[in-house]
Amino acid sequence: EIKKEYKEEIKTIEEKIKEEVEVEIEVIEKEIEKEAKKEIHKIKKRNKIIITQNTTENSYNSSEELNSSTSQYQLEETSISIRKNINKKI
């Protein structure tokens, strides 16, 4: 009779422990999920900054290339013009 009583008490204690553990697991999972969302947000923000920087650098580089091309074209035009003037004088 006493053994049966102990068995029931042990079973009740085990069930309470199981419930408490399940609740703790849920709390921990929610905390992990919350932290993961924060980290994902940080990474996305960091990536946006990097993309913006790259876009700015690419725009600057494109502008430099365009200016360089324009300067090269102007040099060629000037060179042609000078040659024409020299040829006229000759």
Structure commentary:
The chain has one helix spanning 2-89. The termini are far apart. With 90 residues, it is mainly alpha-helical. The radius of gyration is 38 Å and the shape is rod-shaped. The chain has one domain (1-90).
The overall average pLDDT, rounded, is: 81
Radius of gyration from CA coordinates: 38 Å
**Helix-strand pattern:** H
> Structurally, how many domains make up the residues?
1
Please render the helix and strand layout as text:
Elements: H1 2-89
Question: Which descriptors would you attach to this protein?
Answer:
mainly alpha; 0% strand; coiled coil; 8232_t:CDS:1; 90 residues
Give a short summary of the structure.
Residues 3-38 form a coiled coil. The protein is built from one helix and no strands. It is mainly alpha-helical and 90 residues long.
